[in-house]
Specification:
Elements (H helix, E strand, L loop, with lengths): L12 E13 L3 H14 L2 H14 L2 E10 L5 E9 L25 E12 L5 E13 L8 H7 L4 E9 L2 E2 L5 E2 L14 H6 E5 L7 E8 L18 H20 L6
Antiparallel strand pairs: 1-5, 1-6, 2-3, 3-4, 4-5, 6-10, 7-8, 9-10
Length: 262
């Protein structure tokens, strides 16, 4: 195999990992089956490959290899090996929202992007949850945080949990180690204004370890949008209250990462 020439010298590894959750109520076993079929069709391996291809464009990467797989009974995975493109004069390390897919701003040395999907459904209550796990890992000057806005806009996201970490070190020309090469106060500063307005956000950051964590919960709760295969008029008032309670309970458990008594 021919070796790929790398440009520059930066041994820092910057990893963006996050989970996206879409939640709904599917009343009958038939509705739950249809929901899983819908998710499998909307976010199959081909569609996920398209999304990751746009991510690679935003961070200015060459796609070296792509592996993708759909699973039975549901779910899909895509993994991309990527490498740098020449830097563009417009490249910026500023702590600011990243672009949507109409711009290419940066470069990296060698890295990967992966995505895995996990649709599932509660067997009794009909609460159905679709989870997407995405990792964007780069070695080089640019942070993968610039891909955040594209990824959040690419999925129906009720809850988003984001982790960003810079690992390793790189040396300057004088031999001094640098354990981070860009300023960051919060992951939120890399998100677009409309995203910040749509979500409640909580930060848990460990600055001395270059670890940043943000949880996001959708502010608006339009009950009708959470009913799959039916309308709100098909539920009486008591049933509506019960389903609302189940949905909000599901969201709270996912957002806080623990089980709560109903």
């Amino acid at each position: 195999m021919k070796k790929l020439k790398l440009h520059g010298f930066n041994n820092l590894t910057k990893t963006l990992s996050f989970n996206i959750y879409d939640i709904c109520y599917a009343r009958t076993p038939h509705h739950r089956e249809e929901y899983l079929e819908y998710i499998d069709e909307a976010y199959n391996a081909e569609r996920l490959t398209q999304i990751l291809t746009e991510v690679a464009a935003i961070i200015g990467a060459n796609i070296l290899n792509t592996a993708r797989q759909n699973y039975d009974p549901q779910g899909a995975s895509v993994a991309m090996l990527i490498s740098e493109q020449p830097a563009i004069p417009l490249v910026s390390d500023a702590e600011a929202p990243g672009p949507l897919p109409d711009a290419v701003l940066a470069h990296l040395d060698k890295s990967h992007i992966t995505v895995h999907t996990y649709p599932e459904s509660h067997p009794d209550k009909g609460i159905s949850t679709f989870r997407v796990d995405i990792d964007v890992s780069t070695c080089g000057r640019i942070s993968p945080l610039h891909a955040l806005n594209l990824l959040i806009h690419s999925f129906e996201s009720d809850i988003v949990i984001v982790d960003y970490r810079v690992r390793g070190f790189t040396r300057d020309v004088h031999g001094e180690k640098h354990f981070i090469d860009h300023k960051i106060n919060s992951i939120q500063n890399f998100m677009s204004q409309d995203t910040c307005e749509r979500y409640e956000m909580i930060d848990v950051n460990v600055y001395e370890e270059n670890i940043f964590h943000t949880k996001m919960l959708l502010k608006e709760f339009d009950f009708d949008n959470y009913l799959f295969g039916m309308g709100v008029e098909e539920l009486n008032e008591r049933a509506q209250q019960q389903v609302r309670k189940w949905l909000q309970h599901e969201m709270s458990e996912i957002f806080y990462g623990r089980n709560f008594k109903v």
